[in-house]
Amino acid sequence: MRAPRTPGSSAKALVENSLTLMKLIKINLAFVVAASTGIMTTLGLWANDPEGKAADRQHDAQTGAELSAQAAWSTIQKSVKDMETAVTSKNLKAIHPATVEIMPAIKALQAHCRMLAGDVGLRLESSLSALRSAVIEFHHERNEGAQARAEAQLKKVQAAFREVESQHPETLFNSGTH
To answer: How confident is the model over 69-89, as pLDDT tens digits?
Structure first.
């Protein structure tokens, strides 16, 4: 059985219910603001995430032909040196910029290879594909953070780079054979 109502008790109950409702609305509003802020922060981080952008560039269909062959080759040489420096200095975080920088240069040089006559262009393009694969694997090893594995993968990058270098790309594109 319910307690008898006293005058004003329904007004008091209404005020309490209103306050409770307002608290719930305030809590829900705070949750919505926090959730939307979290989403916006996440989207902001995603938009500025160089790792994600690197992955996009690695698998992107862009040819990279906007770089000259000489500029692309220079970038490849510099990036390999930067990778070597990063591993020897045990600064695995420094691998990331070098692996990101080299990818468009490899694509650009591959695009220029298609303009070379005969097997020369095909051989160089194939060697560049091997270098690209080694760089992608190297980038993933850097993400794992294991120094020994990064050193082992760097050796693969260096071997692939030497194969490209042995074909003298700096002279192929200067000789006017493309």
So the answer is: 999 999 999 999 999 999 999
Ordered alpha helix ranges (H), 115-146: 118-144
With 0-12 CB in 10 A as exposed, 13-18 as middle and 19+ as buried, what is 153? buried
* Angle of CA points 149, 64, 52, to nearest 5°: 50
Total number of residues shown for the chain: 178
Question: Is the C-alpha dihedral spanning 155, 160, 161, 167 positive or negative?
Answer: positive
Contact status, residue 112 vs residue 137, Cβ threshold 8 Å: no
Q: pLDDT of 108-148, one tens digit each? A: 999 998 888 888 889 999 999 999 999 999 988 777 778 88
| Structure-block tokens of residue 3 | 């307690």
Token match 């091997």: residue? 130
Cα angle at 134 between 115 and 56, to 5 degrees? 75
Residues 104/62, Cβ–Cβ less than 8 Å? yes
Architecture of domain 51-172 in CATH? Up-down Bundle (1.20)
Q: Map out the domains of the chain as residue ranges.
A: 8-48, 51-172
Structure token digits, residue 113: 């290879």
> Distance between CA atoms of 92 and 148, rounded to whole angstroms?
11
Matching residue, tokens 């990064």? 150
Q: Do the Cβ atoms of 172 and 178 come closer than 8 Å?
A: yes
Angle subtended at Cα 77 by Cα 168 and Cα 170, rounded to the nearest 5 degrees: 25
